[in-house]
Predict the structure of Citrate synthase.
Amino acid sequence: MSTDIHRGLAGVVVDTTAISTVISETNSLTYGGYPVQDLAASRTWEEVAYLLWHGDLPDAGQLADFRAAERAQRGLDRAGAELLARLPATCHPMDVLRTAVSYLGAQDPTEDDADPAANYAKSLSLFAKLPTVVALDVRRRRGLDPLQPDPALSYAENFFHLCFGAVPPADVVRAFEITMILYAEHSFNASTFTARVITSTLSDLYSAVTGAIGALKGPLHGGANEAVMDMLAEIDDPARAEQWLDRALAEKRRIMGFGHRVYKNGDSRVPIMQAALDQLVSAHGDARIRRTADLYGRLQRAMLARKGIHPNLDYPSALAYHLMGFDTPAFTPIFVMSRITGWTAHVTEQLHANVLIRPLGAYTGPRQRPVPAGA
Ligand SMILES: CC(=O)SCCNC(=O)CCNC(=O)[C@H](O)C(C)(C)COP(=O)(O)OP(=O)(O)OC[C@H]1O[C@@H](n2cnc3c(N)ncnc32)[C@H](O)[C@@H]1OP(=O)(O)O
Ligand SMILES: O=C([O-])CC(=O)C(=O)O
């Protein structure tokens, strides 16, 4: 038996996948073979979601059907809304989302039906309902009653409507769609791998998604987008960026929104998101946002100069969500709204050629010894 230990599974190829590929050498990412920058430039979020589940982009008829199905399933039933309303306001919104997915599984009679068609139906239902859940919780924390989904609006427009009771200008909606497209899928990242591990035991899709939400919550993964905003708030003054960074690095702190397990020369998605953010700041940024954007730029330049470490997608996305008006604790739940597509596509792929995922550990505990006589 090999005694090679791959801590964190770094560099280990555990299976094949046809959903996406991250090519670290060229800093590129493709979904179903299509470069993500081209998808972000020319396709809607709904089209990209369809692509991840079906392996190709929809034609006009397929897109119309897909949109209609998503719009028809946005509602959360009353029992679900009441359950979420009873959760303590002190809990993190990711806990609310995790509970919501658990609830939706528990009340779905097809929960254990792992047929691809049944799992696709569940995936689409979660895709449609998660914005309703996230928005309900955003409003609850602001002391506001929930709003009803509007089937006349696109996915992104409806989400703004559900959160704020209004749809912002088209360029803001489009920037939000770009964050959805970029966050949707990233091969065997920690949360997707979690979903695949759970699926590999032949557990159900809702359990896989619930586990994936737990993995995404952590600040070394999806939780970093919230941590970025907290960090920018902590530094506050652009003139303090370099000094703050030097101190944080001396204290061996992790600088949130920087570094990546796969990309060592920059995250393929950052240039696309950075361009969308720059456009948002110039079109909609007030003096306060411009000041934060200044701090953001200084910190990024200093991190590159000090450590040679580039930002990951969570860095520009955090400021974009802040500018759009979302409260920081909603950032990782918004990531879930997007990544639900990638997770569930991987659930289906895992089931298609399933093998139990069960690695080994190299034991370092005491040698075998006799159990002492009891007292
Ligand atoms: C959507 C996403 O999930 S993207 C990732 C979001 N997460 C974050 O932004 C959290 C901050 N980043 C990190 O902690 C890391 O870069 C990770 C966890 C994302 C990837 O880490 P790994 O690939 O395991 O790299 P590892 O942790 O081994 O770091 C390599 C070196 O770079 C340093 N490094 C990496 N990222 C950072 C960072 N953000 N701040 C400070 N130092 C860092 C490490 O300290 C280490 O230095 P050393 O070799 O001197 O000890
Ligand atoms: O791939 C990773 O390790 C983390 C990441 O960027 C993502 O999940 O989008």
In short: The domain at 224-324 is CATH 1.10.230.10 (Cytochrome p450-Terp; domain 2).
